[in-house]
């Protein structure tokens, strides 16, 4: 199988992540894209982190209706920092016949030489880069020129989407609607569980059903919640995506949380 790996904090997952995964599927002719929430980011603290299990659960809700996507808890089930090289090595061990594609944003790709074992990352996977306004492929190529196997890097075209997890968290704190920035199931989860200050922003049940804190849509996300690790997307067969697979590797780019294309 040709498998894309999209790592990040997913705090929360949003439409930018989903569009990125879709474009990677199409442009790289992938069979599947696996979302890998970071467990322990090695070089930075995840802001307003509701916990790794909650971030995984939001990913599972976001991708539940698309059979092309899967979620993996590979970095949650492993102790210590989430290094991409270790995650890729474990995925390769579990499914040696899979061809792996690590999907990164341009800014993350430009920093690849500073990651933990960057050449090991390039050995284990084809790096597929989503260019950003601040980082063109020429600029990225200069940054990566000193690395062995840098010629394996591929570039993806993606619509410019001005959305970020940090902006979504800010909107929640300010009582602004987040519907259409994230899937409806994720909106419900955030509001029902009081994430990112949602509970304090507005009394429950006081809104207009627009996905803002206190709206009618925030009423009981528990009916649509799937226990983390129990999503059909994350228990699919294959070497990478199954949550029931042996616990293992954590990321080796500086970790999926640090280098995901659309993460905050």
- Poorly predicted tracts of residues: 201-208, 216-264
Question: Please, how many helices?
Answer: 10
Supply the CATH architecture of the largest domain.
Answer: 3-Layer(aba) Sandwich
Overall outline = globular
In sequence order, what are the helices and strands, one letter per element? EHEHEHEHHEHEHHHH
| CATH domain class name of the largest domain | Alpha Beta
Indicate the proportion of strand residues: 5-15%
Kindly give the count of domains: 2
Largest sheet: 6 strands, parallel
Helicity range: 25-40%
**What structural class do helix, strand and pairing data support?**
alpha/beta
Instruction: State the total count of DSSP E strands.
Output: 6
The mean pLDDT is: 81
CATH-wise, what's the superfamily of the largest domain?
A: HUPs
CATH topology of the largest domain: Rossmann fold
Which value, in Å, is the CA radius of gyration? 18 Å
User: Reading side by side through the largest sheet, how are the strands ordered?
Assistant: 3-2-1-4-5-6
Distance from first to last alpha carbon: 29 Å
SSE map:
Elements: E1 2-8, H1 15-28, E2 32-37, H2 52-63, E3 69-71, H3 84-94, E4 99-105, H4 106-110, H5 118-124, E5 126-130, H6 137-144, E6 154-156, H7 165-173, H8 184-192, H9 198-201, H10 256-259
Parallel strand pairs: 1-2, 1-4, 2-3, 4-5, 5-6
Helix pairs in contact: 2-8, 3-5
């Amino acid at each position: 199988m040709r498998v894309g790996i999209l790592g990040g904090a997913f705090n929360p997952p949003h439409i930018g992540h989903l569009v990125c995964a879709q474009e990677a599927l199409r442009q790289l002719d992938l069979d599947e894209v696996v979302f890998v929430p970071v467990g322990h980011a090695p070089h930075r603290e995840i802001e307003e982190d509701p916990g790794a299990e909650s971030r995984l659960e939001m990913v599972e809700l976001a991708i539940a209706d698309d059979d092309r996507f899967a979620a993996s808890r590979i970095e949650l089930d492993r102790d210590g920092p989430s290094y991409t090289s270790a995650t890729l090595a474990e995925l390769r061990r579990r499914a040696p016949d899979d061809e792996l594609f690590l999907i990164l944003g341009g800014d993350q790709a430009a920093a690849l030489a500073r990651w933990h074992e960057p050449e090991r990352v390039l050995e284990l996977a084809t790096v597929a880069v989503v260019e950003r306004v601040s980082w063109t492929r020429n600029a990225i190529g200069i940054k990566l020129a000193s690395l062995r196997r840098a010629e394996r890097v591929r570039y993806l075209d993606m619509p410019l989407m001005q959305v970020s997890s940090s902006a979504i968290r800010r909107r929640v704190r300010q009582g602004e609607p987040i519907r259409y920035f994230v899937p409806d199931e994720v909106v419900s989860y955030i509001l029902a569980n009081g994430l990112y200050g949602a509970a304090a922003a507005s009394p429950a049940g006081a809104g207009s059903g627009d996905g803002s804190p206190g709206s009618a849509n925030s009423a009981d996300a528990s009916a649509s919640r799937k226990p983390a690790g129990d999503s059909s997307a994350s228990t699919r067969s294959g070497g990478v995506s199954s949550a029931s697979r042996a616990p293992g590797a954590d990321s080796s780019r500086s970790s999926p949380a640090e280098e995901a294309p659309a993460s905050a």
